[in-house]
Amino acid sequence: MRGGRHPVRGGDRPDVPQRGDRPLPRSALGGTGLAREAVGLVVRHLFEARGHHRITIDPAAANERAIRCYEAVGFVRVGIMRQYERAADGTWRDGLLMELLAKTF
């Protein structure tokens, strides 16, 4: 099973939505706060250095660990995206749309 995906890719235009798909593997470091710290650093960079005003992410709705991490950084749940991604076995899985605004970070 994979870790969460993180939206980091994009150009230098903060007015254009940025989207990426960079999975972070699970490791023995789970539960140490390292992922939360890493996500927080990326978020701070996107807001402060790149001038973005909003960041959206879309973890699998069943990935409770990733969702807790994102919420700890400040992301809020926007809604469920039903049948959002197809699993390796061909079944559909829901995704959770989450966002964070610079003014609330």
Explain how this protein is built.
This protein is of the alpha+beta class and 105 residues long. The chain has a domain at 54-105. 25% of the residues lie in helices and 28% in strands. The chain contains two helices and five strands. It has a three-stranded antiparallel sheet. A two-stranded antiparallel sheet has the order 1-2. Strand 4 (76-86) and strand 5 form a beta hairpin. Helix 1 crosses helix 2 (64-73). It is globular, with a radius of gyration of 14 Å. The protein starts with a strand and ends with a strand.
Spans of at least 5 consecutive residues whose pLDDT stays below 50 are: 1-7
Estimated structural class: alpha+beta
Mean pLDDT level:
82
Termini gap: 30 Å
User: What's the gyration radius in Å?
Assistant: 14 Å
Assembly category:
single chain
Fold blueprint:
Layout (H helix, E strand, L loop, with lengths): L4 E2 L15 E2 L10 H16 L4 E4 L6 H10 L2 E11 L5 E10 L4
Antiparallel strand pairs: 1-2, 3-5, 4-5
Quick gist of this model?
This protein has 2 helices and 5 strands. By secondary structure, the protein is an alpha+beta fold.
Key features of this structure:
globular; 105 residues; alpha+beta; 25% helix; two-stranded antiparallel sheet; three-stranded antiparallel β-sheet; 2 helices
